[in-house]
Amino acid sequence: MATNITTRAKDYSQWYLDVIAAGDMADHSPVRGCMVIKPHGYGIWELIRDQLDARFKATGHVNAYFPLFIPMSFLAKEAKHVEGFAMECAVVTHSGLEQDGKGGLRPKGQIEEPLIVRPTSETIIGHTYAQWIQSWRDLPLLINQWANVVRWEMRTRLFLRTMEFLWQEGHTAHETADEAQTETLQMLDVYTEFAENVLAIPVVRGEKSAAERFAGAERTYCIEAMMQDGKALQSGTSHNLGQNFSKAFDIKYQTRDQKVEHVWTTSWGVSTRLIGGVIMTHADDEGLVLPPAIAPIVVAIVPIYRKDEEREAVLAYAKGLMAQLVGGAVAARAVGGSEIMSSVLPGSGRRVVLDLRDGLRPPDKFFHWEQRGVPVRIEVGPRDLQNGKAVVVTRVNREKSIVDAPKLTRAWLDATLATQQQALLDRARAFRIARTFAVDTYEDFRARLDGGGFFLMHWDGTAATETRIKEETKATIRCIPSDNILDSAAGPVDMRATGTDPVSGQASKGRVIFARAY
RNA sequence: CGGGGCGUGGCUCAGCCUGGUAGAGCGCUUGGUUCGGGACCAAGAGGUCGGAGGUUCAAAUCCUCUCGCCCCGACCA
After folding, report:
1. What does the pLDDT look like over A471-509, one tens digit per residue?
2. Half-sphere exposure of residue A204: CA atoms within 13 angstroms, side-chain side
Protein backbone atom coordinates (compact mmCIF):
# COMPACT_ATOMS: atom_id res chain seq x y z
CA MET A 1 0.00 0.00 0.00
CA ALA A 2 0.96 3.57 -0.47
CA THR A 3 3.04 4.99 2.37
CA ASN A 4 2.96 8.55 1.13
CA ILE A 5 -0.81 8.88 1.21
CA THR A 6 -2.92 9.27 4.35
CA THR A 7 -5.95 7.00 4.19
CA ARG A 8 -9.39 8.44 3.60
CA ALA A 9 -10.61 6.94 6.85
CA LYS A 10 -7.88 8.61 8.88
CA ASP A 11 -8.02 12.14 7.48
CA TYR A 12 -10.02 12.88 4.35
CA SER A 13 -8.62 16.39 3.83
CA GLN A 14 -5.05 15.22 4.16
CA TRP A 15 -5.77 12.30 1.86
CA TYR A 16 -6.99 14.74 -0.78
CA LEU A 17 -3.79 16.80 -0.56
CA ASP A 18 -1.62 13.67 -0.54
CA VAL A 19 -3.30 12.31 -3.67
CA ILE A 20 -2.61 15.57 -5.51
CA ALA A 21 1.03 15.52 -4.44
CA ALA A 22 1.54 11.82 -5.21
CA GLY A 23 -0.30 12.19 -8.50
CA ASP A 24 2.02 15.01 -9.52
CA MET A 25 -0.93 17.27 -10.30
CA ALA A 26 -0.32 20.62 -8.61
CA ASP A 27 1.80 22.57 -6.17
CA HIS A 28 1.00 25.39 -3.79
CA SER A 29 2.28 28.70 -5.11
CA PRO A 30 4.24 31.38 -3.23
CA VAL A 31 1.02 33.37 -3.20
CA ARG A 32 -1.55 32.17 -0.72
CA GLY A 33 -4.50 30.44 -2.31
CA CYS A 34 -3.01 30.07 -5.76
CA MET A 35 -1.69 26.92 -7.36
CA VAL A 36 0.80 25.77 -9.94
CA ILE A 37 -0.91 23.22 -12.15
CA LYS A 38 1.73 20.68 -13.12
CA PRO A 39 1.83 18.94 -16.51
CA HIS A 40 -0.09 15.90 -15.35
CA GLY A 41 -2.81 18.04 -13.78
CA TYR A 42 -2.91 20.36 -16.74
CA GLY A 43 -3.12 17.41 -19.12
CA ILE A 44 -6.36 16.45 -17.40
CA TRP A 45 -7.67 19.98 -17.80
CA GLU A 46 -6.76 19.95 -21.49
CA LEU A 47 -8.77 16.78 -22.04
CA ILE A 48 -11.70 18.28 -20.14
CA ARG A 49 -11.42 21.48 -22.13
CA ASP A 50 -11.19 19.83 -25.52
CA GLN A 51 -14.12 17.51 -24.99
CA LEU A 52 -16.33 20.23 -23.52
CA ASP A 53 -15.36 22.62 -26.28
CA ALA A 54 -16.46 20.09 -28.89
CA ARG A 55 -19.85 19.94 -27.18
CA PHE A 56 -20.15 23.74 -27.14
CA LYS A 57 -19.33 23.88 -30.84
CA ALA A 58 -21.83 21.11 -31.54
CA THR A 59 -24.53 23.22 -29.91
CA GLY A 60 -23.70 26.25 -32.05
CA HIS A 61 -21.38 28.23 -29.81
CA VAL A 62 -18.17 29.96 -30.82
CA ASN A 63 -15.22 31.05 -28.71
CA ALA A 64 -13.99 34.59 -28.13
CA TYR A 65 -11.88 36.31 -25.51
CA PHE A 66 -12.77 39.23 -23.27
CA PRO A 67 -10.34 41.22 -21.10
CA LEU A 68 -9.04 40.34 -17.68
CA PHE A 69 -9.53 43.87 -16.35
CA ILE A 70 -12.95 45.36 -15.85
CA PRO A 71 -13.65 49.02 -14.99
CA MET A 72 -14.87 49.18 -11.42
CA SER A 73 -17.89 51.16 -12.49
CA PHE A 74 -19.17 48.25 -14.58
CA LEU A 75 -19.65 46.12 -11.54
CA ALA A 76 -21.87 48.70 -9.92
CA LYS A 77 -24.46 48.51 -12.67
CA GLU A 78 -26.29 45.39 -11.59
CA ALA A 79 -27.27 45.68 -7.94
CA LYS A 80 -27.41 41.99 -6.98
CA HIS A 81 -24.24 41.25 -8.91
CA VAL A 82 -22.19 43.81 -6.95
CA GLU A 83 -23.62 42.57 -3.71
CA GLY A 84 -22.50 39.04 -4.54
CA PHE A 85 -19.04 39.76 -5.84
CA ALA A 86 -17.86 43.00 -4.21
CA MET A 87 -16.11 41.26 -1.34
CA GLU A 88 -14.12 38.89 -3.47
CA CYS A 89 -12.78 41.24 -6.13
CA ALA A 90 -9.08 41.87 -6.56
CA VAL A 91 -8.71 45.58 -7.28
CA VAL A 92 -5.92 47.23 -9.27
CA THR A 93 -5.29 50.74 -8.03
CA HIS A 94 -1.74 51.53 -9.08
CA SER A 95 0.55 51.28 -12.06
CA GLY A 96 4.29 50.99 -11.86
CA LEU A 97 6.73 50.55 -9.02
CA GLU A 98 9.35 52.71 -7.41
CA GLN A 99 12.11 52.32 -4.80
CA ASP A 100 10.78 52.71 -1.31
CA GLY A 101 14.13 53.88 0.02
CA LYS A 102 14.45 50.85 2.27
CA GLY A 103 15.73 48.45 -0.34
CA GLY A 104 12.26 47.41 -1.46
CA LEU A 105 9.59 48.57 -3.82
CA ARG A 106 6.23 50.25 -3.52
CA PRO A 107 3.42 50.98 -5.99
CA LYS A 108 3.95 54.21 -7.85
CA GLY A 109 1.17 55.99 -9.70
CA GLN A 110 -2.43 55.73 -8.62
CA ILE A 111 -4.71 55.12 -11.58
CA GLU A 112 -7.82 57.19 -12.30
CA GLU A 113 -10.52 54.55 -12.13
CA PRO A 114 -9.60 51.36 -10.27
CA LEU A 115 -9.81 48.17 -12.31
CA ILE A 116 -11.09 44.92 -10.99
CA VAL A 117 -9.72 41.58 -12.05
CA ARG A 118 -12.68 39.63 -13.43
CA PRO A 119 -14.36 37.35 -10.92
CA THR A 120 -16.71 36.50 -13.82
CA SER A 121 -17.39 38.41 -17.03
CA GLU A 122 -21.10 39.23 -17.22
CA THR A 123 -20.42 42.94 -16.93
CA ILE A 124 -17.69 43.41 -19.51
CA ILE A 125 -19.49 41.09 -21.89
CA GLY A 126 -22.77 42.90 -21.28
CA HIS A 127 -21.07 46.16 -22.17
CA THR A 128 -19.66 44.60 -25.34
CA TYR A 129 -22.90 42.92 -26.39
CA ALA A 130 -24.66 46.28 -26.14
CA GLN A 131 -22.39 47.47 -28.93
CA TRP A 132 -22.68 44.34 -31.03
CA ILE A 133 -26.42 43.83 -30.92
CA GLN A 134 -28.74 46.08 -32.92
CA SER A 135 -31.32 43.81 -34.46
CA TRP A 136 -33.12 40.52 -33.96
CA ARG A 137 -30.92 39.37 -36.85
CA ASP A 138 -27.92 39.57 -34.50
CA LEU A 139 -29.57 37.02 -32.21
CA PRO A 140 -29.02 34.58 -30.74
CA LEU A 141 -25.45 35.46 -29.87
CA LEU A 142 -23.80 32.30 -28.60
CA ILE A 143 -20.28 32.88 -27.26
CA ASN A 144 -18.02 31.02 -24.88
CA GLN A 145 -14.66 31.95 -23.47
CA TRP A 146 -11.90 29.92 -21.84
CA ALA A 147 -10.22 32.08 -19.25
CA ASN A 148 -8.83 32.53 -15.79
CA VAL A 149 -10.75 34.41 -13.12
CA VAL A 150 -9.87 35.66 -9.65
CA ARG A 151 -11.97 35.54 -6.52
CA TRP A 152 -10.42 36.72 -3.27
CA GLU A 153 -11.35 33.69 -1.22
CA MET A 154 -10.67 33.47 2.49
CA ARG A 155 -10.10 29.76 2.60
CA THR A 156 -8.74 27.83 -0.33
CA ARG A 157 -8.06 24.22 -1.33
CA LEU A 158 -6.21 23.04 -4.39
CA PHE A 159 -8.57 22.71 -7.37
CA LEU A 160 -11.72 23.00 -5.24
CA ARG A 161 -11.35 26.64 -4.36
CA THR A 162 -8.33 28.66 -5.40
CA MET A 163 -8.09 32.42 -5.69
CA GLU A 164 -7.29 32.15 -9.38
CA PHE A 165 -8.84 29.36 -11.37
CA LEU A 166 -9.33 28.31 -14.96
CA TRP A 167 -12.80 27.93 -16.38
CA GLN A 168 -15.07 28.44 -19.29
CA GLU A 169 -17.92 30.88 -19.23
CA GLY A 170 -20.62 30.86 -21.86
CA HIS A 171 -22.57 34.07 -22.43
CA THR A 172 -25.56 34.09 -24.71
CA ALA A 173 -28.17 36.65 -25.74
CA HIS A 174 -31.62 35.82 -27.06
CA GLU A 175 -34.79 37.37 -28.46
CA THR A 176 -37.18 35.83 -25.99
CA ALA A 177 -37.38 34.67 -22.41
CA ASP A 178 -38.29 31.21 -23.65
CA GLU A 179 -35.20 30.94 -25.81
CA ALA A 180 -32.97 31.99 -22.93
CA GLN A 181 -34.60 29.41 -20.70
CA THR A 182 -34.16 26.73 -23.36
CA GLU A 183 -30.48 27.63 -23.70
CA THR A 184 -30.00 27.55 -19.92
CA LEU A 185 -31.46 24.08 -19.70
CA GLN A 186 -29.66 22.86 -22.81
CA MET A 187 -26.28 23.73 -21.30
CA LEU A 188 -27.28 22.12 -18.03
CA ASP A 189 -27.91 18.97 -20.06
CA VAL A 190 -24.55 19.32 -21.80
CA TYR A 191 -22.86 19.50 -18.39
CA THR A 192 -24.81 16.54 -17.10
CA GLU A 193 -23.92 14.37 -20.07
CA PHE A 194 -20.29 15.49 -19.92
CA ALA A 195 -19.95 14.85 -16.18
CA GLU A 196 -21.34 11.36 -16.47
CA ASN A 197 -19.83 10.19 -19.76
CA VAL A 198 -16.44 11.90 -19.64
CA LEU A 199 -15.72 12.46 -15.95
CA ALA A 200 -17.67 9.37 -14.87
CA ILE A 201 -19.21 11.51 -12.13
CA PRO A 202 -22.93 10.89 -11.66
CA VAL A 203 -24.70 14.17 -10.99
CA VAL A 204 -28.12 15.37 -9.97
CA ARG A 205 -29.29 18.26 -12.06
CA GLY A 206 -31.66 20.75 -10.63
CA GLU A 207 -32.44 24.33 -9.74
CA LYS A 208 -30.92 26.35 -6.94
CA SER A 209 -33.07 27.93 -4.27
CA ALA A 210 -33.14 31.74 -4.14
CA ALA A 211 -30.49 31.76 -1.43
CA GLU A 212 -28.02 29.83 -3.57
CA ARG A 213 -28.78 31.65 -6.81
CA PHE A 214 -26.02 33.36 -8.82
CA ALA A 215 -25.74 37.07 -8.06
CA GLY A 216 -27.83 38.71 -10.76
CA ALA A 217 -29.60 35.63 -12.12
CA GLU A 218 -33.32 35.02 -12.41
CA ARG A 219 -32.85 31.30 -12.13
CA THR A 220 -29.75 29.22 -11.45
CA TYR A 221 -29.41 25.55 -12.33
CA CYS A 222 -26.62 23.26 -11.30
CA ILE A 223 -25.22 19.79 -11.34
CA GLU A 224 -24.43 18.39 -7.92
CA ALA A 225 -22.12 15.47 -7.29
CA MET A 226 -21.48 13.49 -4.13
CA MET A 227 -17.91 13.08 -2.97
CA GLN A 228 -16.62 10.01 -1.14
CA ASP A 229 -17.02 11.70 2.24
CA GLY A 230 -20.70 12.21 1.48
CA LYS A 231 -20.42 15.95 0.91
CA ALA A 232 -21.90 17.64 -2.11
CA LEU A 233 -19.84 19.39 -4.76
CA GLN A 234 -21.48 21.91 -7.07
CA SER A 235 -19.81 20.92 -10.30
CA GLY A 236 -21.31 23.25 -12.85
CA THR A 237 -23.87 26.02 -13.10
CA SER A 238 -26.14 27.44 -15.77
CA HIS A 239 -27.94 30.74 -15.23
CA ASN A 240 -30.94 32.32 -16.83
CA LEU A 241 -30.12 35.99 -16.32
CA GLY A 242 -33.44 37.24 -17.67
CA GLN A 243 -33.14 40.90 -18.61
CA ASN A 244 -31.16 41.87 -15.51
CA PHE A 245 -27.90 42.43 -17.33
CA SER A 246 -29.42 43.63 -20.58
CA LYS A 247 -31.19 46.37 -18.65
CA ALA A 248 -28.08 47.21 -16.62
CA PHE A 249 -25.94 47.44 -19.77
CA ASP A 250 -28.65 48.56 -22.14
CA ILE A 251 -28.42 45.64 -24.52
CA LYS A 252 -31.32 46.37 -26.86
CA TYR A 253 -32.43 45.09 -30.22
CA GLN A 254 -35.05 45.95 -32.77
CA THR A 255 -37.68 43.24 -32.93
CA ARG A 256 -39.23 41.64 -35.98
CA ASP A 257 -42.23 43.92 -35.53
CA GLN A 258 -40.08 47.03 -35.22
CA LYS A 259 -40.16 47.57 -31.50
CA VAL A 260 -37.10 47.97 -29.28
CA GLU A 261 -36.60 45.37 -26.55
CA HIS A 262 -33.93 44.30 -24.10
CA VAL A 263 -32.35 40.94 -24.91
CA TRP A 264 -32.55 37.91 -22.62
CA THR A 265 -29.20 36.52 -21.55
CA THR A 266 -27.71 33.40 -20.02
CA SER A 267 -24.35 32.40 -18.63
CA TRP A 268 -22.93 29.02 -17.68
CA GLY A 269 -19.61 27.66 -16.50
CA VAL A 270 -17.46 24.88 -15.17
CA SER A 271 -13.97 25.21 -13.76
CA THR A 272 -10.80 23.44 -12.69
CA ARG A 273 -12.88 22.52 -9.65
CA LEU A 274 -14.01 19.56 -11.76
CA ILE A 275 -10.54 18.08 -11.27
CA GLY A 276 -11.08 18.21 -7.52
CA GLY A 277 -14.38 16.47 -8.11
CA VAL A 278 -12.71 13.74 -10.14
CA ILE A 279 -10.19 13.16 -7.35
CA MET A 280 -12.80 13.01 -4.61
CA THR A 281 -15.10 10.81 -6.65
CA HIS A 282 -12.68 8.21 -7.98
CA ALA A 283 -9.32 8.26 -6.19
CA ASP A 284 -8.56 5.64 -3.54
CA ASP A 285 -6.03 5.10 -0.76
CA GLU A 286 -3.40 4.14 -3.35
CA GLY A 287 -3.72 7.47 -5.15
CA LEU A 288 -5.36 9.01 -8.15
CA VAL A 289 -7.78 7.05 -10.31
CA LEU A 290 -8.59 8.69 -13.61
CA PRO A 291 -11.52 8.00 -15.90
CA PRO A 292 -9.83 6.94 -19.17
CA ALA A 293 -11.53 9.76 -21.08
CA ILE A 294 -9.49 12.36 -19.20
CA ALA A 295 -6.32 10.38 -18.52
CA PRO A 296 -3.36 12.06 -20.24
CA ILE A 297 -1.61 8.69 -20.09
CA VAL A 298 -3.89 5.70 -20.64
CA VAL A 299 -1.33 2.90 -20.63
CA ALA A 300 2.00 2.55 -18.87
CA ILE A 301 4.13 -0.35 -20.00
CA VAL A 302 6.64 -1.54 -17.42
CA PRO A 303 9.40 -3.81 -18.67
CA ILE A 304 10.91 -6.34 -16.27
CA TYR A 305 14.42 -7.72 -16.75
CA ARG A 306 17.65 -8.53 -14.95
CA LYS A 307 20.47 -9.11 -17.35
CA ASP A 308 21.45 -7.01 -20.32
CA GLU A 309 20.40 -9.59 -22.87
CA GLU A 310 17.02 -9.86 -21.13
CA ARG A 311 16.73 -6.11 -21.19
CA GLU A 312 17.16 -5.92 -24.92
CA ALA A 313 14.72 -8.69 -25.72
CA VAL A 314 12.11 -7.41 -23.27
CA LEU A 315 12.35 -3.85 -24.54
CA ALA A 316 11.96 -4.97 -28.13
CA TYR A 317 8.91 -6.97 -27.10
CA ALA A 318 7.50 -4.02 -25.14
CA LYS A 319 7.99 -1.66 -28.06
CA GLY A 320 6.15 -4.11 -30.27
CA LEU A 321 3.22 -4.09 -27.86
CA MET A 322 3.29 -0.32 -27.80
CA ALA A 323 3.05 -0.16 -31.58
CA GLN A 324 0.18 -2.62 -31.50
CA LEU A 325 -1.67 -0.58 -28.89
CA VAL A 326 -1.40 2.73 -30.68
CA GLY A 327 -2.31 1.04 -33.94
CA GLY A 328 0.78 1.99 -35.89
CA ALA A 329 4.35 3.04 -35.70
CA VAL A 330 5.67 4.15 -32.34
CA ALA A 331 6.40 7.84 -32.45
CA ALA A 332 8.72 8.12 -29.51
CA ARG A 333 8.80 11.26 -27.45
CA ALA A 334 10.23 11.94 -24.05
CA VAL A 335 8.00 12.54 -21.05
CA GLY A 336 9.61 14.18 -18.06
CA GLY A 337 13.02 12.81 -18.91
CA SER A 338 14.52 10.88 -21.75
CA GLU A 339 13.94 7.53 -20.07
CA ILE A 340 10.23 7.37 -20.64
CA MET A 341 9.08 6.71 -24.17
CA SER A 342 5.74 8.12 -25.20
CA SER A 343 3.42 7.53 -28.14
CA VAL A 344 0.30 9.52 -28.83
CA LEU A 345 -2.87 7.54 -29.42
CA PRO A 346 -4.10 8.82 -32.78
CA GLY A 347 -7.39 10.66 -32.53
CA SER A 348 -7.44 11.09 -28.77
CA GLY A 349 -4.34 13.04 -27.81
CA ARG A 350 -3.78 10.65 -24.93
CA ARG A 351 -0.59 8.67 -24.63
CA VAL A 352 0.87 5.27 -24.10
CA VAL A 353 4.20 5.30 -22.26
CA LEU A 354 6.98 2.79 -21.92
CA ASP A 355 8.94 3.19 -18.72
CA LEU A 356 12.58 2.63 -19.62
CA ARG A 357 14.11 4.05 -16.46
CA ASP A 358 16.98 1.83 -15.41
CA GLY A 359 17.39 3.36 -11.98
CA LEU A 360 14.02 2.14 -10.73
CA ARG A 361 12.94 -1.39 -10.02
CA PRO A 362 9.58 -2.63 -11.36
CA PRO A 363 7.64 -2.17 -8.10
CA ASP A 364 8.73 1.47 -7.96
CA LYS A 365 7.37 1.93 -11.44
CA PHE A 366 4.09 0.21 -10.59
CA PHE A 367 3.54 2.68 -7.78
CA HIS A 368 4.63 5.59 -9.90
CA TRP A 369 1.97 5.04 -12.55
CA GLU A 370 -0.64 3.82 -10.16
CA GLN A 371 -0.45 7.01 -8.10
CA ARG A 372 -0.90 9.05 -11.24
CA GLY A 373 -4.14 7.26 -11.97
CA VAL A 374 -3.07 5.66 -15.24
CA PRO A 375 -6.00 3.37 -16.18
CA VAL A 376 -4.04 0.43 -17.59
CA ARG A 377 -0.61 -0.92 -16.74
CA ILE A 378 1.04 -3.61 -18.78
CA GLU A 379 3.93 -5.56 -17.27
CA VAL A 380 6.19 -7.53 -19.57
CA GLY A 381 9.10 -9.67 -18.49
CA PRO A 382 11.11 -12.64 -19.72
CA ARG A 383 8.33 -15.06 -18.77
CA ASP A 384 5.78 -13.15 -20.84
CA LEU A 385 8.16 -12.88 -23.73
CA GLN A 386 8.63 -16.63 -23.68
CA ASN A 387 4.90 -17.34 -23.49
CA GLY A 388 3.80 -14.58 -25.84
CA LYS A 389 1.74 -12.91 -23.13
CA ALA A 390 1.60 -9.79 -20.95
CA VAL A 391 0.28 -8.99 -17.51
CA VAL A 392 -2.47 -6.37 -17.60
CA VAL A 393 -3.47 -4.47 -14.47
CA THR A 394 -6.43 -2.13 -14.47
CA ARG A 395 -6.35 0.80 -12.06
CA VAL A 396 -10.04 0.80 -11.15
CA ASN A 397 -9.90 -2.44 -9.18
CA ARG A 398 -6.18 -3.27 -9.42
CA GLU A 399 -6.98 -6.65 -10.89
CA LYS A 400 -4.27 -8.53 -12.74
CA SER A 401 -4.88 -10.68 -15.78
CA ILE A 402 -2.63 -12.44 -18.24
CA VAL A 403 -3.43 -11.63 -21.84
CA ASP A 404 -2.14 -13.09 -25.12
CA ALA A 405 0.11 -10.48 -26.67
CA PRO A 406 -1.57 -10.47 -30.11
CA LYS A 407 -4.80 -9.40 -28.44
CA LEU A 408 -3.29 -6.15 -27.20
CA THR A 409 -4.44 -3.99 -30.08
CA ARG A 410 -5.91 -0.50 -30.33
CA ALA A 411 -9.37 -2.07 -30.51
CA TRP A 412 -8.64 -4.06 -27.34
CA LEU A 413 -7.39 -0.91 -25.63
CA ASP A 414 -10.45 1.11 -26.59
CA ALA A 415 -12.72 -1.64 -25.32
CA THR A 416 -10.77 -2.00 -22.08
CA LEU A 417 -10.81 1.73 -21.46
CA ALA A 418 -14.53 1.86 -22.17
CA THR A 419 -15.11 -0.89 -19.63
CA GLN A 420 -13.02 0.94 -17.04
CA GLN A 421 -14.83 4.20 -17.75
CA GLN A 422 -18.19 2.52 -17.25
CA ALA A 423 -17.05 0.73 -14.11
CA LEU A 424 -16.07 4.04 -12.52
CA LEU A 425 -19.41 5.61 -13.32
CA ASP A 426 -21.30 2.59 -12.03
CA ARG A 427 -19.27 2.50 -8.84
CA ALA A 428 -19.76 6.20 -8.18
CA ARG A 429 -23.47 5.99 -8.89
CA ALA A 430 -23.90 3.01 -6.57
CA PHE A 431 -22.00 4.93 -3.90
CA ARG A 432 -24.27 7.93 -4.23
CA ILE A 433 -27.46 5.91 -4.19
CA ALA A 434 -26.32 4.05 -1.09
CA ARG A 435 -25.88 7.41 0.65
CA THR A 436 -29.05 9.08 -0.51
CA PHE A 437 -31.84 9.01 2.05
CA ALA A 438 -35.41 10.17 2.18
CA VAL A 439 -35.96 11.68 5.63
CA ASP A 440 -39.28 12.75 7.09
CA THR A 441 -38.39 14.21 10.45
CA TYR A 442 -35.89 16.89 11.39
CA GLU A 443 -34.57 14.65 14.18
CA ASP A 444 -33.81 11.86 11.74
CA PHE A 445 -32.15 14.32 9.39
CA ARG A 446 -29.93 15.80 12.08
CA ALA A 447 -29.03 12.42 13.48
CA ARG A 448 -27.82 11.12 10.15
CA LEU A 449 -26.23 14.26 8.72
CA ASP A 450 -22.79 13.66 10.22
CA GLY A 451 -22.60 10.38 8.33
CA GLY A 452 -22.71 12.34 5.08
CA GLY A 453 -24.95 11.93 2.09
CA PHE A 454 -27.85 13.50 0.23
CA PHE A 455 -31.03 13.93 2.23
CA LEU A 456 -34.29 14.09 0.34
CA MET A 457 -36.52 16.14 2.56
CA HIS A 458 -39.71 18.14 2.17
CA TRP A 459 -39.29 21.90 2.09
CA ASP A 460 -41.94 24.56 2.39
CA GLY A 461 -40.18 26.74 -0.16
CA THR A 462 -39.34 29.57 2.23
CA ALA A 463 -35.96 31.18 2.75
CA ALA A 464 -36.66 31.31 6.48
CA THR A 465 -36.75 27.55 6.81
CA GLU A 466 -33.71 27.13 4.60
CA THR A 467 -31.75 29.64 6.66
CA ARG A 468 -32.76 28.01 9.92
CA ILE A 469 -31.59 24.61 8.69
CA LYS A 470 -28.32 26.07 7.47
CA GLU A 471 -27.65 27.78 10.77
CA GLU A 472 -28.53 24.76 12.83
CA THR A 473 -26.90 22.04 10.74
CA LYS A 474 -24.56 23.65 8.17
CA ALA A 475 -26.51 21.76 5.52
CA THR A 476 -27.91 23.65 2.54
CA ILE A 477 -30.34 22.96 -0.24
CA ARG A 478 -28.10 21.66 -2.98
CA CYS A 479 -30.84 21.72 -5.55
CA ILE A 480 -34.44 21.17 -6.38
CA PRO A 481 -33.90 18.21 -8.70
CA SER A 482 -35.14 18.34 -12.28
CA ASP A 483 -35.95 14.65 -12.31
CA ASN A 484 -39.15 13.48 -10.67
CA ILE A 485 -37.67 10.30 -9.31
CA LEU A 486 -34.34 9.94 -7.50
CA ASP A 487 -32.83 6.66 -6.36
CA SER A 488 -32.12 6.33 -2.67
CA ALA A 489 -30.68 3.59 -0.50
CA ALA A 490 -34.23 2.45 0.17
CA GLY A 491 -35.37 2.61 -3.46
CA PRO A 492 -36.84 5.22 -5.83
CA VAL A 493 -38.22 8.38 -4.23
CA ASP A 494 -40.94 10.49 -5.79
CA MET A 495 -39.58 14.01 -5.46
CA ARG A 496 -42.85 15.64 -6.52
CA ALA A 497 -45.14 13.96 -4.01
CA THR A 498 -46.58 16.61 -1.70
CA GLY A 499 -46.01 16.45 2.03
CA THR A 500 -45.14 18.45 5.11
CA ASP A 501 -41.97 20.38 5.85
CA PRO A 502 -40.62 18.66 8.97
CA VAL A 503 -38.99 21.85 10.21
CA SER A 504 -41.78 24.39 9.82
CA GLY A 505 -44.75 22.05 9.71
CA GLN A 506 -45.99 23.85 6.60
CA ALA A 507 -47.18 22.18 3.41
CA SER A 508 -44.51 21.13 0.90
CA LYS A 509 -44.87 20.67 -2.85
CA GLY A 510 -42.02 18.20 -2.99
CA ARG A 511 -38.65 17.07 -1.71
CA VAL A 512 -35.31 18.81 -2.27
CA ILE A 513 -31.73 17.70 -1.64
CA PHE A 514 -30.17 18.84 1.59
CA ALA A 515 -26.46 18.16 2.18
CA ARG A 516 -23.31 19.65 3.54
CA ALA A 517 -21.25 20.99 0.69
CA TYR A 518 -17.76 22.01 -0.37
C1' C B 1 -11.25 39.74 10.36
C1' G B 2 -11.62 36.62 15.40
C1' G B 3 -9.41 32.03 17.93
C1' G B 4 -5.35 28.33 17.88
C1' G B 5 -0.65 26.33 15.84
C1' C B 6 3.93 26.54 13.10
C1' G B 7 8.41 28.72 10.41
C1' U B 8 15.59 24.65 10.92
C1' G B 9 18.92 21.22 3.61
C1' G B 10 13.98 19.51 -1.81
C1' C B 11 10.22 16.98 2.01
C1' U B 12 8.86 15.46 7.27
C1' C B 13 10.86 16.83 11.62
C1' A B 14 14.54 16.71 16.20
C1' G B 15 17.53 20.36 18.75
C1' C B 16 15.09 25.65 21.93
C1' C B 17 12.83 24.78 28.39
C1' U B 18 18.64 24.53 30.88
C1' G B 19 22.83 29.81 24.99
C1' G B 20 28.86 27.15 23.27
C1' U B 21 28.64 27.99 16.45
C1' A B 22 23.54 22.42 13.15
C1' G B 23 21.40 16.82 13.20
C1' A B 24 18.07 12.44 11.67
C1' G B 25 14.86 9.95 8.23
C1' C B 26 13.13 10.34 3.34
C1' G B 27 14.53 12.34 -1.36
C1' C B 28 18.80 13.73 -4.70
C1' U B 29 24.02 12.57 -7.17
C1' U B 30 27.91 8.72 -8.34
C1' G B 31 29.51 3.54 -8.32
C1' G B 32 28.28 -1.54 -7.31
C1' U B 33 24.98 -5.59 -6.07
C1' U B 34 19.72 -6.11 -7.13
C1' C B 35 15.00 -6.28 -10.10
C1' G B 36 7.42 -10.24 -11.48
C1' G B 37 4.27 -5.05 -5.77
C1' G B 38 7.91 0.46 -2.62
C1' A B 39 15.80 -3.29 -2.06
C1' C B 40 20.79 -2.97 -0.10
C1' C B 41 26.05 -1.39 0.39
C1' A B 42 29.59 2.49 -0.23
C1' A B 43 30.91 7.44 -1.32
C1' G B 44 28.88 12.47 -2.00
C1' A B 45 26.08 17.21 -2.78
C1' G B 46 22.86 20.27 -0.10
C1' G B 47 21.12 24.76 5.47
C1' U B 48 23.77 32.86 6.75
C1' C B 49 17.92 27.86 11.49
C1' G B 50 11.46 33.20 7.92
C1' G B 51 13.27 38.63 8.54
C1' A B 52 14.95 42.97 11.52
C1' G B 53 16.62 44.78 16.06
C1' G B 54 18.25 43.81 21.13
C1' U B 55 20.74 41.05 25.49
C1' U B 56 25.54 38.33 25.75
C1' C B 57 32.47 36.85 25.24
C1' A B 58 28.99 33.67 22.46
C1' A B 59 21.97 33.21 19.92
C1' A B 60 18.48 28.10 15.98
C1' U B 61 18.03 28.55 21.49
C1' C B 62 16.52 34.38 25.61
C1' C B 63 13.69 39.43 24.67
C1' U B 64 11.04 42.97 21.23
C1' C B 65 9.01 43.92 16.64
C1' U B 66 7.77 42.14 11.86
C1' C B 67 6.58 38.89 7.65
C1' G B 68 4.63 34.36 5.97
C1' C B 69 2.09 29.70 6.17
C1' C B 70 -1.37 25.96 8.20
C1' C B 71 -5.87 24.61 11.06
C1' C B 72 -10.87 26.19 13.17
C1' G B 73 -15.10 30.00 12.43
C1' A B 74 -18.03 34.08 9.26
C1' C B 75 -18.20 34.04 2.55
C1' C B 76 -17.91 31.13 -2.07
C1' A B 77 -17.36 27.70 -8.84
Report:
1. 888 899 999 999 999 999 999 999 999 999 999 999 999
2. 33
Measure A294 CA to B2 C1' (Å): 42
Mean pLDDT throughout A92-101?
A: 79
| ipTM for the complex shown | 0.86
Would the Cβ of A370 be found within 7 angstroms of any atom in strand B?
yes
| Residue A335 confidence (pLDDT) | 60
- In chain A, positions 228-287 with C-beta closer than 7 Å to nucleic chain B are 234-235, 237, 269, 271-273, 286
**Residue type at A467?**
T
* Environment class of A464 (CB within 10 Å of its CB; exposed 0-12, middle 13-18, buried 19+): exposed
β pairing state of A69-71 and A454-458: unpaired
User: Is the CB of A24 less than 7 A from some atom of nucleic acid strand B?
Assistant: no
Residue A103 has pLDDT above 80, yes or no: no
Nearest-angstrom CA–CA distance, A265 and A251: 10
Q: Which residues contact A317 (CB under 8 A, 6 or more apart)?
A: A380, A384, A385, A405
In Å, what is the separation between the CA of A156 and the C1' of B74? 15
CA separation for the pair A465, A469 (Å, rounded): 6
The whole-angstrom separation of Cα A144 and Cα A66 is: 10
Residue A131 to residues A59, A124, A128, A170, A250, Cα–Cα distance (Å) = 24, 11, 5, 18, 9
Q: What domains are defined for chain A?
A: 12-282 (3.30.930.10), 295-416 (3.40.50.800), 435-515 (3.30.110.30)
Quote the CA–CA distance of A22 and A3 in Å, as a whole number.
Answer: 10
Strand B proximal to A28 Cβ, under 7 A: yes
Instruction: Please state whether A191 falls in left (phi above 0), alpha (psi between -120 and 50) or beta.
Output: alpha
pLDDT band at A3 (very low <50, low <70, confident <90, very high): confident
Is A140 (CB) below 7 Å from strand B?
A: no
- CA A290 – C1' B23 distance (Å)? 41
A213 with A221: CB under 8 angstroms?
no
Helix, strand, or coil here: A386? helix
Decide if pLDDT at A100 tops 90: no
Is the distance between the Cβ of A155 and the closest atom of strand B smaller than 7 Å?
Answer: yes
Q: What span, in angstroms and rounded, lies between the C-alpha atoms of A199 and A182? A: 24
pTM for the predicted model, two decimal places: 0.96
- A371 CB below 7 A from strand B atoms: yes
Band of pLDDT at residue A333, cut at 50, 70 and 90: low
Cα separation values, A369 from A24, A297, A364, A408, Å: 10, 9, 9, 19
Which residues are paired to A224 by β-bridges? A204, A234
Cα gap A206→A456, rounded to integer Å: 13
